[in-house]
Fold this protein.
Amino acid sequence: MRVLLTGSSGWLGRFLAPMLRGAGHAVIGLDVAPGADTDVLGSVADRGLVEQVFAEHGIEAVIHAGGLHKPDIVRYPAQAFVDVNVTGTLNLLECAKAAGHDRFVFTSTTSLMISQAIRDEAGDSAVWLDETSGPIEPRNIYGVTKLAAEGLCRIAWLEQGLATIVLRTSRFFPEDDDTHATPSGENLKANELLHRRLTVEDAARAHLVALERAPAIGHGVFVISAPTPFARADCGELKRDAAAVIARTFPEAPALYAARGWTLPTSIGRIYDSALAEQLLGFRCETDFAALLAALRDGGALPVAHDPAYVSPKEAAG
Ligand SMILES: NC(=O)c1ccc[n+]([C@@H]2O[C@H](COP(=O)([O-])OP(=O)(O)OC[C@H]3O[C@@H](n4cnc5c(N)ncnc54)[C@H](O)[C@@H]3O)[C@@H](O)[C@H]2O)c1
């Protein structure tokens, strides 16, 4: 298929574009910033441009991964989030419907499920989060606009029959966390694979699977994250003493971590459950915490990319 990939210059885009081509698709990349996989420079918020891209490139399906995200909150006003994340999504959906498409994949975020209360981790138990969790009360403009875009995807299916798959992906960014300092770097990313992270390669693969499966599913919202080794019954202890649960589940973890000078999390406040994606979408992340431990044990390359210097290409391009 001739697939329009928005955000083609971004972190996800640069992994997803070659993967799509490898699966036999032609990729037309659209991004505000230049990149190796970007063919059209411009914004999804520009309706005229989006219409032109559809007309000139014979687009047959859309993967909408471009947009403003969490680190952009300090850089852009709320209006820019509405223009890019909401109006931009509407532009793409309406052009897809007008072109008679049968599928649309939207990159959303688990972040929209995090209310201020969940973020504060004030409860005495970890919060278990899946597609049934609610009420959904996003705590910032990023989450609010991603949730609105999800709603646009839902009604595109209900009203026009355009199959729309929403992927609520957890973290896959390579840079350091902008809020948590300790532990930092690779240690934090490794810990997060237990409950709130996936590799960028797995994130890209989820999009490929969603593109293939969309017409058979119709509309679906899926949490996409590395499979957690925990169960709901662990939530209380995970909050009180996460290291104990981890040591019980992975007896070799404490020694492997100690050998690297790393620390296991003492408390875990939230867990993303990606079981529905496995059941319905047929997608499961290839890399999980066990794979990370195997790399530590065997001295192999860590399966999680870490690049403290990464900045979104639109910022790098000025
Ligand atoms: N990185 C994560 O951990 C993470 C987690 C959950 C969801 N997501 C979502 O995944 C998607 C990709 O994120 P990423 O990590 O690759 O970020 P990124 O910043 O590296 O890539 C996003 C790309 O979108 C482009 N873009 C921004 N505004 C645009 C516009 N108006 N029109 C067209 N393109 C525009 C940017 O130039 C950039 O290349 C985003 O939708 C983001 O919300 C990311």
Observations:
- The chain is about 45% helix and 15% strand.
- The radius of gyration is 19 Å.
